[in-house]
UniProtKB/TrEMBL annotation:
InterPro entries assigned: Beta_Casp, CPSF73-100_C, MBL, Metallo-B-lactamas, RibonucZ/Hydroxyglut_hydro, RMMBL
Regions crossing the membrane: none
Family label: Belongs to the metallo-beta-lactamase superfamily. RNA-metabolizing metallo-beta-lactamase-like family. CPSF2/YSH1 subfamily.
Keywords noted in UniProt: Endonuclease, Hydrolase, mRNA processing, Nuclease, Nucleus
BP term (GO), one: mRNA 3'-end processing by stem-loop binding and cleavage
Keyword Hydrolase listed: yes
Subcellular location: Nucleus
GO molecular function: 5'-3' RNA exonuclease activity; RNA binding; RNA endonuclease activity
UniProt name for this protein: Endoribonuclease YSH1
Superkingdom, natural source: Eukaryota
SUPFAM superfamilies recorded: Metallo-hydrolase/oxidoreductase (SSF56281)
Span of domain Metallo-beta-lactamase: 13-226
């Protein structure tokens, strides 16, 4: 098996993982790199002939996992092939809004946009969607007989996010995508599925390397305490977030906290994102896929994602900061989370000089973006337009509400999966090498035989493993339990991905199949005598008994397998039951018979047999 990363190899961003096995090619994720724009943000797409791809599976709607999909579908030769694109129902629903927004944002002030809205919509209609834990069998390939199926499992992380268990010709690969095993207010955490057999290969995210998250309740208390203290000193709280994902969790936390603290209820919580407001419909629609907490509330008639309801303290705003009243203390949640542009950046620049204000960063920031730079608490920041220096006096805090696993959670999950090969992706080089070292030690101490890889972009990892296959014995074959090293023989019946071993007599009962034989018959013109044929065959196979068949034809049975019959005065028939050995014997019989006429021995034999018929001129 070959695994090649076209992105997210020793970096966070532009996830794109190519898996090749037995002539089938599956790609997991097609993202962009958030720190780059235009073509530079794409994965290394030229490394692959996209017309040969069987399927593209998208784990979740985040841009670094899904935003180059339109480019692949519309601007590479993917369309010339038969590849199918899959994502979960909620992912597909959010993806559409998110991509419209992506086109709008990346087109603004740039002529380097990757694709148009029209191209996005054209390809969108080709995407197939599935439910969690639904098993999907890929259409067969023209060039490979290997069958491929996949099943998706909830990955936590964001609405609709899943991990994939891929099975290609019996080899099993688990691709985690971004995942979280932590309980939260609205998502179902990732769990190791109950499988018959662990995956051979696990391709696993490593965003947080060996770092640890604080326990959830402590972290929440720290967060709400911090927000409250900023408000108390008369400040404004800026929460830069991605429109979708942790933002929904933070809104639920704040809404709940406000409900419990009447003294805060006069302070508005603004949520500025036209995109997120559009997507709230999707959140409302997919409540059945969320945590028991959300479902229980919904059953009581409370929709936690309906911020327009009477008792909600959240005020959604969908037109930037024009309608925002920030003269007094307030909480504003705005995107983008990286503070690279847009509303969150605008507010940062406006509020930075006032020391009463506070910035709380809650998510993972990639290298090179403002959200990362400002964590070092510089005294000045640069304005996005014009680059003027702005005093930074507002407080900066970082409380990780990341929806990615930390070291404890990741290593526990890997332990439970226990693959033979572990490929680390989606992590910055230092985080990844620390994780790799920590896991090595962990496995070595326990003598677990796990190979760990952390390939760079475009590097190909070649994996060798025995694709172990299991066959179930059925019927009379299963009457006796075999002891080790005994041989069990029967018919091996393969159907899709399961194998059954049974006695031929049980075939019809257990499989609905029946056995049949193929009788082969070859007819030949006979120009020599029957006796001569017999003489030649005996010369080759030894003494042959002559008998008669049901129709009374003279018959010679050769090696108990092939019958040579005299069916007419000048016609021979060769008959046998088709099979590998029988066919070979029949071939040799045929060669002998066809060679009779031209053989010098025939002339000699004919002379001996019929001396009286010959004309003697002397
Ligand atoms: Zn993600």
């Amino acid at each position: 098996m070959e695994v090649q990363l076209l992105g997210a190899g020793q970096e966070v961003g532009r996830s794109c993982c190519v898996i090749k096995y037995k002539g089938r090619i599956i790609v997991c994720d097609a993202g962009v790199h958030p720190a780059f724009s235009g073509m530079a943000a794409l994965p290394f797409l030229d490394e692959l002939d996209w017309s040969t791809v069987d399927a593209i599976l998208i784990t979740h709607f985040h841009l670094d996992h899904a935003a180059s999909l339109t480019y692949v579908m519309e601007k590479t030769n993917f369309k010339e092939g038969k590849g199918v694109v899959y994502m979960s129902h909620p992912t597909k629903a959010v993806y559409r809004y998110l991509m419209s927004d992506f086109v709008r944002v990346s087109t603004a002030g740039s002529d380097d946009n990757l694709f148009t809205e029209a191209e996005m919509i054209a390809s969108f209609n080709e995407i197939q969607s599935f439910d969690f834990e639904q098993e999907i069998l890929l259409p067969p390939s023209d060039t490979s007989s290997a069958s491929v199926r996949f099943t998706s499992f909830a990955a936590g992380h964001v609405l609709g996010a899943c991990m994939f268990l891929l099975e290609i010709a019996g080899a099993r690969v688990l691709y985690t995508g971004d995942y979280s095993t932590e309980e939260d207010r609205h998502l179902v955490p990732a769990k190791v599925p109950n499988w018959e057999r662990p995956p051979d290969v696990m391709i696993c995210e490593s965003t947080y390397g060996v770092q640890s998250h604080e326990p959830r309740l402590e972290k929440e208390a720290q967060f709400t305490g911090l927000v409250q203290s900023i408000l108390k000193r008369g400040g404004r709280v800026l929460l830069p977030v991605f429109a979708l994902g942790r933002a929904q969790e933070l809104l639920l936390i704040l809404d709940e906290y406000w409900a419990e603290h009447p003294e805060l209820q006069h302070i508005p919580i603004y949520y500025i994102s036209s995109l997120a407001i559009k997507c709230m419909d999707v959140y409302r629609q997919y409540i059945h896929t969320m945590s028991p907490n959300v479902r229980a509330k919904f059953a009581r008639g409370i929709n936690p994602f309906d911020f327009k309801r009477q008792d909600s303290f959240i005020r959604p705003l969908d037109r930037g900061i024009s309608k925002l009243n920030d003269r007094n203390p307030c909480v504003v949640m705005a995107s983008p989370g990286f503070l690279t542009s847009g509303v969150s950046r605008e507010l940062l620049e406006k509020w930075a000089p006032d020391p009463r204000n506070g910035l709380v960063i809650t998510g993972y920031s990639v290298e090179g973006v403002m959200a990362r730079t400002i964590m070092n608490e510089p005294t000045e920041i640069h304005a996005l337009n014009g680059g003027a220096k702005i005093q930074r006096r507002l407080s900066v805090d970082y409380i990780s509400f990341s929806a990615h696993v930390d070291y404890t959670q990741n290593s526990k999950f890997i332990d439970e999966v226990m693959p033979s090969h572990l490929i680390l992706v989606h992590g910055e080089v230092n985080n990844m090498s620390r994780l790799r070292a920590a896991l090595r030690t962990r496995f070595a101490e326990r003598k677990n035989d796990v190979q760990i890889y952390s390939p760079r972009n475009v590097e190909t990892v070649k994996l060798k493993f025995r694709g172990e296959r299991m066959a179930k014995a059925l019927g009379s074959l299963a009457n006796t339990v075999p002891t080790p090293s005994t041989t069990v023989s029967g018919l091996l019946v393969s159907k899709d991905f399961s194998y059954t071993l049974l006695s031929p007599a049980d075939l019809r009962e257990f499989t609905g199949l029946s056995s049949s034989v193929i009788l082969q018959r070859q007819r030949l013109a006979l120009s020599v005598s029957w006796d001569l044929v017999r003489w030649h065959l005996e010369g080759m196979y030894g003494k042959i008994a002559q008998g008669k068949d049901a129709e009374g034809h003279l018959t010679l049975r050769i090696m108990e397998t092939v019958d040579v019959k005299l069916v007419d005065k000048h016609e021979l028939a060769i008959e046998w039951v088709g099979g590998v050995t029988n066919d070979m014997i029949a071939d040799s019989v045929l060669a002998v018979v066809l060679g009779i006429e031209g053989s010098p021995a025939s002339v000699k034999k004919t002379t001996e047999d019929h001396p009286h018929n010959h004309h003697h001129p002397h």
